[in-house]
Every structure is written in C-alpha cells, then in structure tokens.
Fold:
Amino acid sequence: MKDGTKQQLKAFSDETVNLFVLSVLTGVFSGIIVTFYNILTVIGEEKSVALYKLVLENPAFIPVLFLGLAAGSLVIGTIVRFVPTVRGSGIPQTEGASRGIVPLRWYITLCTMFATSLACVFLGYAAGAEGPSVELGACVGGGSASLLKRNSMTKRLQIAAGSSAGFAVAFNAPLTGVVFAMEEAFRAFSPRLFVCSAVSVICALFTRNSIRPALGFEVGFSFENFVFCDFDAISYLYLILASVITALFGVAFYHLVFVVRKLMKRITFLKGIGKFQIPFVLAGAFGLITVYAMGGGHSFIGALASGGTGEITLTGVFGLGVAVSLLIIVAIRTISAALTIGCGVPCGVFVPMLAIGAGTGALLSVLFSGIGFSSECGDYLVIICMAVFFTSVIKAPVTGCVMVFELTGQFVDFLPALIGVVIGCAVGYMFKTEPLYEKLLSSYVKEEKLDIDCKKDGNA
Structure:
C-alpha cells in the first residue's frame, strides 16, 4: 500500500507538479520577451511613420528610402535563407513544432525572428507583431523544456503553451490564446494541453500587465473603440450578405497567396534572395500613399470604429471619400499580405488579415447604409467581417468567435457573430480550401525535405 502511494505521489509529481512549474516558467519568460517585443514594434511603427512623413515633405529623399528598402530586403532575405524557421509569420513552423513535425532550434529562431521581424517594422513594412509573438512564445516553451531536459511530449506541450501565451500577450486576450493553442497550434484537445496553456497564459498576462504600466503603456483591449448594437431582423439580412461577400473575398485571397508563391519560386536572382525586393519596394510605395498601409493594421482597424455613431473616423486617401479610400487601402493591404506570405517575409500576417476583413466590413457597412442598413450597427458588422475573413482563410471558427468579443471588450448578443463565422467557415469548405497555416506547413515540410509524416498529430 505504501509502495503504491509512493508511486502515485511520484507520478503526480512528474505529470502534474513538474508540468505546472514548467508552464509557469514558460508563461513568465514568454510574457517578458513578447511584451518587450510588442512595445518595440509600437515604437518602430511610430518611427517609421515619422520617417515616411519626412520623406513626403522632402521628395529628394525618396530614392534614398527605396535604396534603404532594397538593401534591407537583401539582408533579411539572406537571413531567412539560412534560418527557414522564421520564414513568414512563423505560425506554420510553430504548429509543426508543437506536433513533433518540425525541429525547432529555439535559441536561433527566437533571436532571429525577434530581430528580423522588428527590422521589417522599422522599415515601414506592413508587418504584424502577433505572428512572431506566437513563435517567440513557442521558442520560450521549447527552450524551457529543453534546458530542463524534459521528454519530447512535454516539449511539444510547452511549445503549444508558449504559443498561446505569446498570442495572449500580443492581444491581451487570455481565452483566445488558450483556444488558439488547441484549435490551431496543436489541433487537438486534452486536459494536459489545456492546463499547460492556461497556466502559461495566466502567468504571461500577469507579467505583461505588470511591465506595461511600469513603462507608461496602457493595458487594455486591442480594439476598444468599437461599440456594438443589437441587430434587428433587417440587419440580419445585411449581415448574411456581408458575411457571404467577405467569405468569398477570403477564398479569393487564399488562392491569390498560392499564385504569388508559385510566381516567387520562379525568381532565382541571388539564389532567390532577390525576390524579397519586390514586397519591400512595394511596401515603400504603399507607405508613401497612405499611412494605413504601414504596420500590422491596428491603427487602420481602430480608424474604422465609429463609437456607435456610424461615422467612421478614417482619414481619406488622396482627399477621396470614405468608400473609395477603403477600397484603396483594402486593395493595398491584400497585395501586401499576399506578397508577405508568398515571399516568406519574416513578419506577422495575422493582424494584416484581420485588417483586410475589417476594411471589407467597413466598406460594406458604408455601401449598405445607403440602402437601409442601420449605420449604428456598423461597428459590429466591421468586427464580424473581420472574424469572417479570418475564419474563411484560417478555418479556426472557435478562435474567430471568441476573438470578436475579447479583442473589443464588447460582450453583447453572440448570435450575429456566430452566424457570420459559420458562414465564413461554410464558404471556405464549399470551395474546398485547406486551412492556410496547414497548407503552408505542408509546403514547408516538402521544401525543407523533412522526413516526417505531416499528418502526425499525436495525443497529449
């Protein structure tokens, strides 16, 4: 009996206490690294916007700007060639590492992704911080398990937990971070995975919310200026139509990404490094057109909020009306995001994709308001379309639903958001598109010639 009790206590210590302590370490260090990373990206966006304004005021500097972008693209392209785990947003590689498919050299990947993605932000690229935040957190999780010499399953759990912590810190969205780990990173649910992710997220957010105020930064929701309203029967009809249109646009974007990938593979200049000049030079041109083409898209999404009045605060492009300006910005961001994924620029596309969906929703809201749609429901429609676009491309409906409310802090009628996300998911499956990150992971495994079954998920 005593021997049995000792064995049970030992098993409890090995399987529960140690895992809990490891998750705490992953959460705390993920919180520190990802918080400072996100603070630096905010500073980087501010500096790059100021630089582009200076160039616009002094056109003689335009050639210098493009020379700098061309040189920066070659440096970043060279780094990506030698450290492929930072290619793109890093989320597909993180998912592969959490499932035991992709080997993750955590120290090299962490330092490289931190530096290269931050450089993209300072150069004025349409770079999101959330994708790299996921990979940085995953690297911390993998590093914690490796340094403490844990087994492969524990390492995979910590990679998934770290990715959820990174996501949660980037958005200040704990529940979305936990759901993201299960629905997207690990593609499976288990009590151990939930506990590891939840503990890491809690510790990471406590760390984040201690550091940011100490440094003079706010602690709040990502898009808190949106005010939701209750939908009436007519508004639901507009919602369904907007969701279908946005989902179809998401399917079109999905196919555009892989068309761009095929075209980029044909560019062999400087062993393929030369292809990075295309997205960077275009990013420079787009940044000179409108400030909303720069950065991840937080400022653009925020400018779409009307505060429940129906009056979008977006500044026009070239002095044009709101509808035309929205069309231009959505087109620019669609091209930028497709080039980022297609070329493998080391920066996030998570928020840039949300920005495309939100911009589409705002455009439809403006158009619909002229034919009977209540403009007071425009804020909710914008955020729903943001989730619809995300769901049609990524195929993570639960994350999409939870994200609507956690990123805005508006916890109202859930039904409109649920309808929109279901439509987005259904349209994606109707056109038989694969989840974007899954497809990119499969492509990565083939390109890197990893001798591992891509369908190996395992159970945690």
Summary: Residues 2-57 form the longest helix (56 residues). The chain has 17 helices and no strands.
